[in-house]
């Protein structure tokens, strides 16, 4: 499972890099890394995993899922921040319009 182990490790490393970029609010880079990771996931699962390696693969998948949960949390926080900013801008527009009317 040398190649599969390397592929799985690469998937985990990419996931960790995505999390690091998300924490730094580099969302464009997160999207680029996700595109790369998706291709690697497709490649990884294009062939069945041998039963002897199932436990290691399951552990790797759980690690990736844990990272993805944190990415979702960060994404939701970012979306909330953007929504608040947009609402504040809309209120500002209404105030300007009321003032200039």
A few lines on this structure:
This protein is mostly helical.
Write the layout of secondary structure elements.
Blueprint: H1 2-23, H2 27-44, H3 54-100
Helix pairs in contact: 1-2, 1-3
The share of residues in helices is over 70%
Report Rg: 20 Å
The count of DSSP E runs of length 2 or more, i.e. the number of strands, is 0
By secondary-structure content and strand pairing, the structural class works out as mainly alpha
Q: Estimate what percentage of residues fall within beta strands.
A: under 5%
Mean pLDDT: 90
* Count of DSSP-assigned helices: 3
The dominant shape is rod-shaped
Secondary-structure element pattern, one letter each: HHH
Characterize the largest beta sheet: strand count, sense, and whether it forms a barrel. none
The rounded distance between the terminal residues' Cα atoms is: 72 Å
Low-confidence residue ranges:
none
């Amino acid at each position: 499972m040398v190649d599969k182990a390397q592929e799985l490790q690469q998937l985990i490393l990419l996931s960790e890099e995505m999390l690091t970029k998300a924490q730094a609010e580099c969302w464009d880079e997160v999207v680029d890394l996700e595109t790369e990771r998706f291709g690697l996931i497709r490649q990884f699962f294009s062939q069945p995993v041998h039963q002897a390696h199932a436990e290691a693969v399951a552990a790797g998948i759980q690690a990736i899922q844990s990272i993805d949960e944190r990415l979702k949390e960060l994404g939701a926080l970012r979306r909330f921040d953007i929504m608040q900013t947009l609402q504040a801008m809309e209120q500002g527009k209404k105030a300007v319009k009321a003032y200039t009317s």
